[in-house]
Amino acid sequence: MDDAPITPLAVPSEARTLIVFGGTFDPPHWGHVKPVVEARALAGVNDAWLVYVPAARSPHKSIGPVFSDARRVELLRLAMAEIDHAAIWTDELDRGGGAATYTIDTLRRLRRTRPNAALRLLIGADQALALHRWREPGEIVRLAPPLIMLRGGVESSRDALVAGLRALGAWSAAELGVLESAIVSITPVAASATAIRAALAGNGLDDATRAMLPPGVSLALGRSTG
Ligand code: ATP
User: Fold this and answer.
1) Which of 126, 130, 77, 125 is nearest to 103 (CA)?
2) Per-residue model confidence as pLDDT tens digits over 172-221
3) Residue 225 pLDDT greater than 50, yes or no
4) What is the mean predicted confidence (pLDDT) over 154-174?
5) Residue 32 C-alpha to ligand 1 middle, in angstroms?
6) If you ran DSSP here, which 8-state letter would residue 138 be given?
7) Is 214 in the pocket of ligand 1 (CB under 6 A)?
8) What are the tens digits of pLDDT across the range 48-105?
9) Does 225 reside within a domain?
């Protein structure tokens, strides 16, 4: 679907840096907001625009999202309500037609619409350890050098993540250099969409789960789960 029309991007054309942040956002939570804003600041590109890209269906997950596309976009809008210089770009939803889409195609389409902007791909540490299995990983790193947020669990320390990336044996020395210099030590946020979906499917939103959600999302999910 690479010849599909490119969805207009609601970011001023003079924006010099675009930080692309893709995800299923099923549902969005604090982990998609707080560390993202912090990563932008730590990377020294405070004037960069954050471009949230909701995925139609992750090629890396065996089952599709629980929430509908429209609902995930609506919840994402609520989650990022307070963030400056941030936009949602629905190009993957619009071109995917429910099928899997690939980050490299998204980046190439973004490059076509914004030929002069510097692109960065923001990912969590869990995704950094899987990036070598994405389609054309070397091209992704070249086109949009990643910014990597540490996350809880085994990927919570910089040293552990660097060791993990090296142990993969998948990256050239130059690529490893780019990846290692891309790690930003954000304040970890213990939130995951899997945990939130499990709570919703069980007894509903308890206090611990609500603490993972920005207020607008928490309110919206409290009203209905569909
Ligand atoms: P799921 O539990 O369904 O796998 P998720 O909580 O990991 O979902 P995604 O939408 O898959 O959320 O994540 C989008 C991006 O956000 C990924 O790059 C992921 O690594 C990152 N991310 C998600 N949660 C956090 C968090 N708590 N801290 C840092 N990064 C996070």
Assistant:
1) 130
2) 999 999 999 999 989 989 899 999 999 999 988 999 999 999 999 999 99
3) no
4) 90
5) 7
6) H
7) no
8) 999 999 998 666 666 667 899 999 999 999 999 989 999 999 999 999 777 789 999 9
9) no
51 CB within 6 A, ligand 1: no
Domain membership flag for residue 190: yes
Return the best residue to mutate from 20, 32, 189, 217 for the ligand 1 pocket (most ligand atoms within 8 A of CB).
32
151 lines ligand 1 (CB under 6 A): yes
Task: State how many domains the chain has.
Answer: 1
Whole-number Å distance between alpha carbons of 226 and 66: 8
Report which of 53, 55, 50 is spatially closest to residue 11, judged by C-alpha positions. Answer: 50
Domain of residue 49, CATH code: 3.40.50.620
Where are the strands (E) in 125-220, listed by range? 146-149, 183-184
> Is residue 223, in this structure, part of any structural domain at all?
no
Residue 10 belongs to some domain of the structure: no
Containing structural domain, residue 169:
17-215
DSSP secondary-structure letter at 121? E
Report how far ligand 1's centroid is from the alpha carbon of 86 (Å).
18
Cα separation, 91 vs 50, whole angstroms: 15
pTM as predicted: 0.93
